[in-house]
Amino acid sequence: MMHDYNEETGRLAQQVLDYARQRTELEPIPTGGTATPERLAELVGETITAGGLGGQEALRVFTEVLAPNCLSVDNPRFLAFVPAAPTEASILFDLVVGSESIYAGSWLEAAGATYAENQALRWLSDLAGLGAEAGGVFVQGGTIGNLSAMVGARGAAAARLERLRRNRPDRWVFLIADTAHSSVPSAAMVMDAEVIHVPTDSSRRLTGPAVAEALAHHGDRVAGVVATAGSTNLGVVDDLRSVGEVCRANEVFFHVDAAYGGAALAAPKARPLFDGIELADSIIIDPHKWLFAPFDSCALLWRDPAQAQAVHAQHADYLSFLDRYGQWNPSDYAIQLSRRARGLPFWFSVAAYGTEAYGESVQATLDITQVAADRIDTAEHLNLLWGPSLSIVVFERKGWEAADYEACTDAMIAEGTGFVTPTRHDGKPVFRFCFVNPRTTAEDVDALIAAMA
Ligand SMILES: *Cc1c(COP(=O)(O)O)cnc(C)c1O
């Protein structure tokens, strides 16, 4: 069974590798599709059987029915939510990571993998300017990254109050803007903490003076401030410098959620937008969003990793042996123990192509965003409402109600034109493009705009 490497396994290996290679080489990438559970039951039936289908049959079911009923978010005409555009190197290396059975929770068990992941983290940390001591870990996604960071923030706030011999609050508070990602209030809920919305300025940015006012009001209840560097809906980067300075002056933990936008640190022309990010106590950046890595991978960085370790390291008799090695145990820096070395596909890709290629590819997506903004501006049936802001534009289709937008998205999926979903802006239904794929062309944009006519 498990280790019976016979002729049939060899055939299966060939088929699996061939399929993965073909999928990586597909040009154009098919849009994929979707189906109801009833339809899939009809097409596939039951796959979990006492005797097993056999690898060949299970693979056939996947490649012929299941995979075509998933959307290919790496398609260059997929501009909904935050799509993905993994490099060939990162996709292929993901297969290697799977084959290695690396337990990437501890240095003892994964020294080589951790060394490589840490170099990839170092690159991101240096782009942000977090300092020589900074470090962290790759977690599953921005949601777990934000939760881990906010738990670290609360730990730091509690330690500070203890040092000052002041009481902990009954309920902790996080100061955020209403542009913060949904995972931030969700993390607060998990922590049974409260979020207080700090008003933003006319450009919808969280600013230092507004944070200072909220701090004066909420004082010792504040566990931390969460700013966003690239809001999900509009691509807004908060005024990180003024917020960071206020946090420093008040000894309050400053977390920057750069899950989507942090990639633009790699583009020299965009870097000034992030001025002040170097003041952060923690940052998250998702390589699976705009840094060309496959799902799933979020870089969580701490300015002071020892502080994070004090909060996150798990202790048990069966784990204490690992501490003898006194090295960097990745699981000490977030909410997780067993972990896939989920930073390795990203590391391999950056190692293979080099950081300049990353900067150029991010810049290419910023350039196509500008092209899209110009096209929308001149299209008679559209109205540009926001952007370009990082790689996001928001616009309305003149005369359409919410149902028209939804019908248009359904038609695009059915016809394989692309994938663009409606969102809301100032209370109105709108369309939004988010570009993370350097292979998206002006022709792709034109095709989508034509589908909205
Ligand atoms: C996507 C996103 C998240 C959540 O990241 P996941 O990887 O989807 O969990 C958090 N913050 C921002 C700003 C995001 O855009």
In short:
The protein has 453 residues and is an alpha/beta fold.
How would you portray this structure in words?
- This protein has 453 residues and is an alpha/beta fold.
- It has two domains: 103-353, Type I PLP-dependent aspartate aminotransferase-like (Major domain) (Aspartate Aminotransferase, domain 2, 3-Layer(aba) Sandwich); 356-451, Aspartate Aminotransferase, domain 1, CATH 3.90.1150.10.
- The protein is 44% helix and 13% strand.
- The chain has 16 helices and eleven strands.
- A seven-stranded mixed β-sheet has the order 1-7-6-5-4-2-3, with helices on both faces.
- Helix 7 links the parallel strand 2 and strand 3.
- The model has no long low-confidence stretch (mean pLDDT 96).
- The site of pyridoxal-5'-phosphate has 14 residues, from helix 6.
Q: How many β strands by DSSP?
A: 11
Helical proportion, percent range = 40-55%
User: What is the CATH architecture descriptor of the largest domain?
Assistant: 3-Layer(aba) Sandwich
The CATH C-level class name of the largest domain: Alpha Beta
Cα Rg: 23 Å
User: How many separate helices?
Assistant: 16
CATH fold topology of the largest domain: Aspartate Aminotransferase, domain 2
In the predicted model, the low-confidence regions spanning at least 5 consecutive residues are none
Q: Report mean pLDDT, rounded to a whole number.
A: 96
Number of spatially distinct domains: 2
Instruction: Record the strand order, biggest sheet.
Output: 1-7-6-5-4-2-3
Query: What are the distinct ligands in this entry?
Result: pyridoxal-5'-phosphate
Structural class: alpha/beta
Listing every helix as H and every strand as E from the N terminus to the C terminus, the arrangement reads HHHHHEHEHEHEHEEHEHHHHEEHEEH
Q: Spell out the CATH superfamily of the largest domain.
A: Type I PLP-dependent aspartate aminotransferase-like (Major domain)
Strand content: 5-15%
Termini gap: 56 Å
The geometry reads as globular
Largest sheet: 7 strands, mixed
